[in-house]
Amino acid sequence: MSAQSEGIAIHRVTVRRHWSRRPVLLFAAGAIGLLVALVLGVALGTVAVAPLDTIGILGRRLLGLPIAQTWTPPAETIVLDLRLPRVLEAMVVGLGLSVAGTAFQGLLRNPLADPYVLGTASGAALGAAIAVVIPVRMLVLEFGLLHGLAFAGALLAVWTVYRLSRASPLAPLTGLVLTGYAVGSLLAAGLAMAMYLSGAGLRQIFGYLLGGLDGASWVRLAVAAPLILVASGAILFRARVLNGFLLGEETAAHLGIDVRRERAILLGLASLATAAAVAVSGLIGFVGLVVPHLVRLAVGPNARLVLPLSALAGASLLVFADLLARLLGEIPVGVVTAVVGAPFFLVMLRRVRTGYEL
Amino acid sequence: MIALPVAEANTSGARDLAVDFRSVDAAYRRVDVLHDLTLSIRQGERVALIGPNGAGKSTVLRVLAGLLQARSGQVTLLGRDVATIPRPEVARQLAVVPQLAALPFAMTVEDVVGLGRLPHEDPWRGQRPADRAAIGAAIERVGLGHLLGRDARELSLGERQLVLLAMAVAQQAPVLLLDEPTVHLDLGHQVQVMELLVDLNERDHITIVAVLHDLGLAGHFFPRLVLLDGGRIVGDGPPDQVLTGDQVRSVFRVDPELVRPASAVGRETAGA
Prior knowledge:
The complex is a heterodimer. Chain A contains 14 helices and 2 strands. By secondary structure, chain A is mostly helical. Chain A has a single domain (93-351), classed as ABC transporter involved in vitamin B12 uptake, BtuC (Orthogonal Bundle). Chain A has a two-stranded antiparallel sheet. In chain A, α3 packs across α13 (303-327) and α13 crosses α14 (333-351). Chain A starts with a helix and ends in a 7-residue tail after the last helix. In chain A, 48% of the residues are buried. Mean pLDDT of chain A is 83; it is low at 1-20 and 354-358. Mean pLDDT of chain B is 83; it is low at 1-13 and 263-272. The longest helix of chain B has 18 residues, at 187-204. A 6-stranded mixed sheet of chain B has the order 6-7-8-3-9-10, with helices on both faces. In chain B, strands 2-1-4-5 form a 4-stranded antiparallel sheet, covered by helices on one side. In chain B, α4 (129-142) packs across α5 and α7 (215-221) runs parallel beside α10. Chain B has a single domain, classed as 3-Layer(aba) Sandwich (Rossmann fold). By secondary structure, chain B is of the alpha/beta class. Helices cover 36% and strands 23% of the residues of chain B. At the A-B interface, α1, α9 and α10 of A face α2, β6, α3 and α4 of B.
């Protein structure tokens, strides 16, 4: 009995520390990180604008603050028309990929899952490659055929995987992942064929596969951001459901969750966010895989914390990655996220015990 | 001590039944599992389902929890048809101790037990102080205070089983279902779990339905045994009436001498 009451005493202490102070600090750190990313992302580049001037331009033009103009008009154009939409697009894409990655990992109960696991990447890539290969060019609202087909391809691929896996007699999750792999392989073959046929367009396809934010503009942001933010926001509101899935679908049902319905909703939302992100930025890897794991290391598996913190962390991380890509002479941002992300992930795997039984 | 809700008197006129199966048939795809099963369990009862592998014991639990639809017949939980109760509502009336499952991410014991509060927690704000108190109480009751902040993946199978039991206790439902709650436990912990079930039943009036393979434990700790064979009930009553030599020989196809010491224990304590 005395051992038990000691246990409960320890419990109370842990409960307080665990549930209130630490997340608040992390949210504060995340918000500051995002702000720093915004200012640095806008200030730095081939033409450096002083950080104070950057803050001045942003404050005067966006918030209407009465700040004396100490900068040149070209600086203002660079900041407002070139860099700001690009930084915001990086934020939105990083946010969407991280939230979608958290959702896919939780839903599939698979730590190796990322936003691309159910075929979104291969579908988008094939769509983009087809757009390059066929001799049709069009531009609507600064969106080319490439963006449209990539978006449609991503959603079509997930929808196909979902429908096919429902016919599979395997346990739903295993069926889903294996079907995703099979469909992905098929689409990859199509992509290889398209690349083989693409001739001079090959470089453009490669550019898409590696991801990049160099085409960012206010109009593109205005179309992609609402899709990504609405889908991610809806996922954030389903944190409770994702928690229910932690011990498997049967336990989720015992805990009062309508498993079939919620699985379909979450898959749909995560795929929508991913499709919108890859349509504007190409296939940026590792963000959606690594960010949720990083956040879980800090706060544990509770999706109520993991989802919003992943959103913050993913948004700042992609701004920094894109900044690095720009400073290194416009290399594809996907290369940066992979070069930084992969070793980082390896170190993390060594630190965390990866016991995957139980 | 711990305020666990007592099942409210139900209003549908079905007396004080916690669980009621009326002529229930159930099947997985093409395989029939339950045949014309009729079983009533009153609130506050403690019932063990026994029988050989494939007799349909776990299926009874799955139908009751609403995971498997009865093909015909009616299943009621606290006076209401299970098929018509919304899932979150079922989860507040009925807790199920889950089977061990792989954990994809590091989770502390506290995190896992906290999942039991999911049916109760505020949809927007998450766990409230009342939820945290229930988690602490459940952890204490199952005797896991010393493991509180440990990664659940680092525990032994037996300890993990106790963690899942604590999770179901934290759910604070008036009916508790368990499927083989002692498989990975040593003798000491088996008895500990059985005594906990008796305590939850007698002190908090929680209705307990457990599938058990160990006839000795079933006979010793449960006043009512339901013996299933081939999807039908072939025995229902106190241990000394269910665990007779003839029943054991015909259902388990073993020499009753092998089980006699166990059933003898059941006979001694059943009346006590």
